[in-house]
Amino acid sequence: MTHSAEDPEHVTLMAAGELREALTALERGDHVTAASGLMAIDAASWRAIERRLVTVGGSLLELLAALGQAA
């Protein structure tokens, strides 16, 4: 299946990379870099990420809190 940027379930490769970098930065305790990475995610990808997290029973806020406690 091919995804287009208009697909509401599509997370761009750039957004996936930004999210990964943000989570890695948070684990290191680098909150500025983490916030910057999250803010760089485009709106459509952000909504798709949120929908995927809801599907597995969580939210980005819960994920970030869990990572922050682990650091």
Can you describe what's shown?
InterPro entries: ABC_transptr_periplasmic_BD. It comes from Streptomyces nanshensis. This is Fe/B12 periplasmic-binding domain-containing protein. By secondary structure, this protein is mainly α. The protein has one domain. The protein has four helices and no strands. It has helices at about 15-30, 30-40, 45-55, 60-70. α1 (about 15-30) runs antiparallel to α2. The longest helix is centred in the N-terminal third of the chain and has 16 residues, at about 15-30. The protein is flat, with a radius of gyration of 12 Å. The mean pLDDT is about 85.
Supply the key terms:
single chain; 71 residues; mainly alpha; 0% strand; flat
Sum this structure up briefly:
Helices cover 69% and strands 0% of the residues.
Q: For the terminal residues, how far apart are their CA atoms?
A: 38 Å
Computed Rg: 12 Å
Q: Report the structural category.
A: mainly alpha
Q: What portion of residues is helical? A: 55-70%
The biggest beta sheet reads: none
- Tally of separate helices: 4
**Poorly predicted regions:** none
Q: What is the number of E strands?
A: 0
Topology order in helix (H) and strand (E) letters:
HHHH
What does the average pLDDT come to? 86
Shape: flat
Strand-residue fraction?
Answer: under 5%
